Amino acid sequence: MIELEGVPELIDPVMVAAFEGWNDAGDAASTAVAHLDKEWKGEVFAALDAEDYYDFQVNRPTVWMDDGVRKITWPTTRLSVVRISGEKPRDLVLVRGIEPSMRWRSFCNELLGFAHELGVELVVILGALLGDTPHTRPVPISGTTSDSDLARRMDLEETKYEGPTGIVGVLQEACTHAGVPAVSLWAAVPHYVSQPPNPKATLALLNRLEDLIDVRIPLGELAEDARAWQVGVDQLAAEDSEVAEYVQSLEEARDTAELPEASGEAIAREFERYLRRRDGGSPSAGGHATADGGETGPFLKDNPGGRTKPPKPPRPSGTDDDESSEE
Fold first, then answer.
1. Residue 323, pLDDT above cutoff 50
2. Which of 45, 101, 103, 218 has a 20 to 30 Å separation from 86 between CA atoms?
3. Cis before 298 (ω within 30)
4. In this structure, what are the phi and psi dihedrals at residue 103, rounded to the nearest 5 degrees?
5. What angle is formed at CA 96 by the lines to CA 233 and CA 10, rounded to 5 degrees?
6. Which pLDDT score is estimated for 103?
7. Burial classification of residue 102, based on how many CB atoms lie within 10 Å of its CB (0-12 exposed, 13-18 middle, 19 or more buried)
8. Contacts of 265 (CB under 8 A, 6+ apart)
9. If we measure between CA atoms, which residue out of 220, 182, 214 comes closest to residue 90?
10. Could you give the C-alpha distances from 5 to 45, 50, 93, 117, 259, in angstroms and in order?
11. Residue 310 in contact with residue 192, Cβ under 8 Å?
């Protein structure tokens, strides 16, 4: 039985969820939800029972001191509410946690129980995967849904993916079967610089979420952090000709692929975001999802010089050099 005492009646509520782990390359998705919670001062109203869903040898509890008293924080998933005021008030139910170790169907059913009790109209699940994308270009964001009507209405892709999935995919399908509209927003994180944080990917997810649910999200210092992150990666690439060459090859591939689309729609979306802002005023251990549904661990390995390198791009077929690419 789900009891929600003390939670006020919500206005057009949207549930926004993200989970640390396989679905969260660069911690981009979980950081996005944490940003919403911080900027809008979310109030936690529920936490799932950690005993039901987590293997504590995989996601260990932490011990901390509170006025000389030792306390334990258990890995779990928490729900909070944020109230958005303005001309179009709307409330968000934020779900932030760790991908569960077990009982995924029960986990999703419990979250859907909260969604039903709170009158949630839309579930948006944020994720991030590792991809062949250069850090110097805008972060690709894909929006997918299993609902064909929702795909047409919100200009999303109807998912056709087949392969390994994480809790993001499972929760989206659970929403579909329960008749709850659900969308997944995925950020592609450069696989050669996959260590968290990645504020540029977090910023891109929040911008796309802003467009999707038609709210103005306060960004705080996130835009400045994203610029600083890119400058730092630029400097790293400049120190190594092999890295710089690899990044250039990704840039050329990206620019060639996107050239036919040149981007009236993207310009229009950016202009709408500008107007909205002007009018409104001021992982756990293990790998991450990749674009093909595989799994990989951290990509940048320490070399003897203390710097890190990307995997070498595949060599053209027919070459005499059979040197294998670095994993």
1. no
2. 45
3. no
4. 55, 50
5. 125
6. 96
7. exposed
8. none
9. 214
10. 9, 21, 15, 11, 53
11. yes
Residue type, 30: S
- Mean pLDDT in residue range 38-53: 93
CB atoms near residue 12 (< 10 Å): 16
Res 287 pLDDT > 90 = no
Model's pTM, two decimal places? Answer: 0.80
Residue whose pair of structure tokens reads 């859907």 in the numeric block: 112
Give the mean model confidence (pLDDT) for residues 160-169: 89
Q: Which residue has the higher pLDDT, 302 or 207?
A: 207
Q: Which residue has 């979310």 as its token pair?
A: 42
pLDDT averaged over every residue in the chain: 82
SS (H, E, C) 44-110: EEEECCHHHHCCCCCCCCEEEEECCEEEEECCCCEEEEEEECCCCCEEEEEEEEECCCCCHHHHHHH
Q: Which two tokens stand for residue 121?
A: 């109209």
- Percent helix, strand, coil in the chain (nearest 5)? 40, 25, 40
Backbone dihedral angles phi then psi of residue 113, each to the nearest 5 degrees = -60, -45
Reported confidence tier of residue 300, pLDDT bands at 50, 70, 90: very low
Residue 195 main-chain phi, psi, to 5 deg: -70, 140
Higher-pLDDT residue of 33, 161: 33
Could you list the beta-strand ranges (E) of the chain: 14-20, 43-47, 62-66, 69-73, 78-84, 90-98, 122-131, 141-145, 157-158, 182-190, 288-289, 295-296, 301-302, 308-309
